[in-house]
Amino acid sequence: MRTNSPVKGLLKFSLQSSSGNFAIAMLVCLALGVALLVTGNATVYTFFVTVTITFPPMFFMMGSAGGGNSSKWERFRISMPVRRKDVIASNYLGVILTSLVGLPIFLVFSGLSVFLHADLTDLITSTALYEFTRFFCVALFTASIFYPLVNTIGGNKGEGLLMVCMLGGVGFILGVSWIGGRAELSESFVSILTITVSIAIYLISFVATQKIYAKRDF
């Protein structure tokens, strides 16, 4: 997925289109981070990790699909002087970038929590990388299902479709974790396996979606 000027322009356009929802996602992440600092609660930590890593890319996916105005959005987008494959490249690149947006928030609040709450030290230091990897893979897997489907059946009901795809992403991660547990694999090996499979599926989905989008009528 080479980053050229058309892709950068489309990516910027998609981010601007979802900026309102994206700002809400960031505020929710910050609020949960503050709640974690105040409470030092393990359950709050779980919610914090989940939201910080998954909310930004989910809102980006919804914005890049045009929300409830998918047909008008796509007709406008392909009227721009860009290739159709650049449109898809910008979507897939955007998911990766927005998944990483929450990383600084995750690191800062997790680090402060370790400093403020000694009882969270073992939990955070032993699971931080594993949890980030898991939810990053949820975002990748969700996008891998969502973009081919939304470009096949249309995005007028994209919100519901995205939720179904996200449940599929969560199911995928839980399934890999279950298999790893049954096989008595180490946590680090399960993490490497999860991200390797997720990236492979993501790349396959990218190629498939480019072909679907190239044949799509608007």
Helix content bin: over 70%
Arithmetic mean of pLDDT? 81
Rg on CA atoms, Å? 18 Å
Rough shape? globular
Structural class: mainly alpha
- Structurally, the number of domains stands at 1
Write the H/E string, N to C.
HHHHHHHHH
**How many angstroms does the end-to-end distance come to?**
24 Å
What are the main properties of this structure?
218 residues, mainly alpha, 9 helices, 84% helix
Concise summary:
This protein has 218 residues and is mostly helical. It has helices at residues 5-17, 19-39, 42-64, 70-78, 84-101, 103-116, 121-153, 158-182, 187-214. The protein has 9 helices and no strands.
What does this structure look like?
- The protein has one domain.
- It contains 9 helices and no strands.
- It has helices at 5-17, 19-39, 42-64, 70-78, 84-101, 103-116, 121-153, 158-182, 187-214.
- Helix 5 (84-101) packs antiparallel against helix 9.
- The longest helix has 33 residues, at 121-153.
- The model has no long low-confidence stretch (mean pLDDT 81).
Please give the structural blueprint.
Blueprint: H1 5-17, H2 19-39, H3 42-64, H4 70-78, H5 84-101, H6 103-116, H7 121-153, H8 158-182, H9 187-214
